[in-house]
Amino acid sequence: MNKSSLFIHWFLFILLFMIVIVPFIPLVLTSVSFGWRWPNVLPESFSFRAWEYVLGESTTWRAVAVSLWIALVVTAINILLAVPAANAFSRYPIRGRWLFEAIIFAPIVIPPFVAVMGIHLTFLRLGLTETIVGVVLAHIAPTLPYMVRAVMISYQTLSTDWENQARMLGAGPMSRFYFVVLPHLLPGIAAGASLSILISLSQYLITFIIGSGQVVTLPILLFPFISGGDPAIAAAYSLLYAAIAIAALIGMDMALKKYYQNKKTAAGAV
Questions:
Q1: How far is CA 52 from the centre of its chain?
Q2: Is the Cβ–Cβ distance between 235 and 50 less than 8 Å?
Q3: Bridge-partner residues for 45, per DSSP?
Q4: Largest Cα–Cα distance in the chain?
Q5: Exposed/middle/buried for 93, CB within 10 Å: 0-12, 13-18, 19+?
Q6: Is 115:107 a contact under the CB 8 Å cutoff?
Q7: How far is the C-alpha of 174 from the C-alpha of 153, rounded, in Å?
Q8: Distance (Å, rounded) from C-alpha 12 to C-alpha 184?
Q9: Packing angle of the helix pair 132-156, 97-109 (nearest 10 deg)
Q10: SS3 assignment, position 46
Q11: Residue 73, Cβ neighbours under 10 Å: how many?
């Protein structure tokens, strides 16, 4: 490695450290602080009372379980909806395609508050407010566009010749999808699923309005402490949320690598 490459390597490492790691340092210090006031550079004293509260509360772990359950269910539904939608958008000349794409991708540019009020009125009539089912359905709107876009990119790099060859060899529709299409789509599905999980985990406004305070997720627990409660507990909850999000992404990455290893092993055995 020459000097210029080494310099670029260290520069990128320092830049990544400054962007990713440094913002967590104040959170860690705040979570273990007791009486940290401006303009002091470091806390006056340290205490683990915030972590004892966060980790000792049963509501915390219920909120973690509910948050993960909602995020995973939302992601599974998004995959089922996004794959056929991306297939249609990428491969078929649909009349009025721009209108359908505008409807699907609208939640990216339209503020959530604009749509959630209409959703709330509809769910009130259907009896879906204050339920996990209602929150799951409401979370689909802000997460589905990212899944559709990620899968569309994968479909656009998949040649139909591969499927035609499988068809000529006698493979049926399900076999063609499982053995030819799905392995090619998996990176896009994984990318879309990662965004879907992160966005679902971070939803406060939609969860609060649709769940009416009865569906308690981590953002619902976190927000009162941020908006005027205990900063140390808010920092502890923020770190816990970040750890759960990172763990979910690492778990998905490991599952994807395991899938490809099994496929490679099976191909080598044949």
A1: 28
A2: yes
A3: 34
A4: 74
A5: exposed
A6: yes
A7: 21
A8: 31
A9: 120
A10: strand
A11: 18
User: Nearest 5 degrees, angle CA 111-CA 142-CA 23?
Assistant: 80
Please write the tens of the pLDDT for every residue from 198-225.
Answer: 899 888 888 988 988 888 998 888 888 8
Task: Tell me the angle at which helices 58-91 and 218-226 cross, rounded to the nearest 10 degrees.
Answer: 120
Query: Length of the chain, please?
Result: 270
Rg from Cα positions in the chain? 23
Tokens of 173: 């529709």
With beta carbons less than 8 A apart as the criterion, state whether 143 and 207 touch: no
Q: pTM score > 0.70 for this model?
A: yes
CA-CA distance, 138 to 130, in Å (whole number)? 12
Mind listing the pLDDT tens digit for each residue in 1-57? Answer: 566 677 777 778 788 777 777 778 888 888 888 777 766 667 777 888 888 888 888
| 135 Cα distance to chain centroid | 15
